[in-house]
Write a structure and sequence with these properties.
This protein has 73 residues and is mainly alpha-helical. 41% of the residues lie in helices and 0% in strands. The protein has helices at residues 14-33, 62-71.
């Protein structure tokens, strides 16, 4: 009469290791697919500029100056 060989307690066998790894992978995949709740970012109020007193609205800004530099031949 032979006794069934059992691994000592506390030892992880290959089947248990793969089952745990598969479970962890499945949980990670589900967590990645779940929609996340977006955090609300407070928006700054946009204050419109007052219109110019004498009409027009053109202003020679740094951005405009840079454009003129690029168009020179």
């Amino acid at each position: 009469m032979s006794q069934a060989s059992r691994p000592p307690q506390g030892v992880v066998n290959r089947r248990t290791l793969f089952a745990g790894a598969t479970t962890a992978g499945a949980l990670a995949a589900v967590a990645a697919l779940l929609p996340s709740t977006p955090t609300e970012v407070p928006q700054a109020e946009v204050v419109p500029k007052a219109p110019p007193e004498r009409g027009g609205g053109y202003a020679l800004t740094d951005h405009v100056k840079q454009y003129y530099q690029t168009t020179r031949v």
